[in-house]
Structure formats: C-alpha cells, structure tokens
Amino acid sequence: MANRDIIILPDKQLRLISKPVEKITPEIRALADDMFQTMYDAPGIGLAAIQVAVPLRLITMDLSKKEGEKEPRVFINPEILASSDEMSVYEEGCLSIPEYYEEVERPARVRVRFMDLEGVTREEDAEGLYATCIQHEIDHLNGVLFVDYLSKLKRDRVMKKFTKAAKLAAK
User: Where does 12-170 sit in CATH, by number?
Assistant: First the structure.
C-alpha cells in the first residue's frame, strides 16, 4: 500500500470523465488499497480514483463512525439507478477542495448498482450520509464537483481562491 497524491482544485483532471474498469486485476486491487490508505490518511470518508489522477470508475468509501472500527467498501463502475424526489441537505467537503465546506442539496435516497472487488454486481438502496457520499463520489467519476451545486457567486469565489493558491504554490 502506498499513499498517493490527491489532486487539488483547479487541476483540470478533476473534470475528466472516468472510464469503466474492464477487469478486476491485481493493479485494480492495488489501486483500491492505495486509495484506502490515502483516504484514511487525509482523513476522508470517500475517494474517487480520479482524485489520485487515475481516470477509472472506482470509489473507496468508509462511513464507519467509531474510532478504530473500519468498514472499507469498494464500488467499481457504480451507477445511480433511481433517486428519490425527496431531497436532503448535508454539509459536504472534498479532499480535492481542502478545508472548504458547504451545504449541498441532493436526493435523500438513491438506488445504486456497482461491482465489488470480487466481481459481484450488487444493487443497494442508500440514504442519509451513504446516499450523499455515493452521489458525491459518482459525481467525481463524471467530472462534477460539489461546488457545481452552489450559487455562481460561491462557486466563482472558491475557484478564484484555489486558482490563486495553485499559482502561489507553483512559484
């Protein structure tokens, strides 16, 4: 397992649409392991492969609440099959947009289909934090960021702040 660099806004890779995982190989398993290590070290609860500069449809997630108890989950080629009309609001953050949090409204419940690391296709109903997190991470696979749900004014401020920080870091 290795820690990978998380790409940060305004990196244009974050806008790429990730490609499906064709086959679960040792490289895919190693990528998932690296993503877990990177996610836990950050710390975060979800990470899309594109956030470590790998444009594949792979997500790692761990929503465990208790310290020391881990519930790592891998979602390969995830897709949302259905969304509720009912909406919910959660304060979201993103490892690619560090130390910025904002309330985002999303469907309260979704049905998701994905493949696990064993190659088994699964369907699950998600609600609460799980629904929010899976939608947030699938958005990453489609080149969408949570700031895209904000008002133009807030989004422009965030983009300006991170673009300025990137220019300063490059000097």
Answer: 3.90.45.10
Element (H, E) at 62: none
Ligand-binding site membership of 136 (annotated): yes
Tell me the domain boundaries of the chain.
12-170
- 155 membership: H or E segment, kind and range: helix 152-170
Confirm whether pTM is higher than 0.85.
yes
Return the active site residues.
137
Among 78, 92, 72, smallest CA distance to 146 is for 92
Residue 110 annotated in ligand binding? no
What's residue 66's pLDDT? Answer: 73
Contact present, 52 and 62 (Cβ < 8 Å): no
Q: Is residue 29 a known part of a binding site?
A: no
Task: Name the helix (H) or strand (E) containing 64.
Answer: none
Q: What is the mean pLDDT of residues 2-20?
A: 96
Strand partners, 125: 111
User: What does the buried/exposed string (b/e) look like for 29-57 if buried means 16 or more CB atoms within 10 Å of the residue's CB?
Assistant: eebbbbbbebbbeeebbbbbbbbbebebb
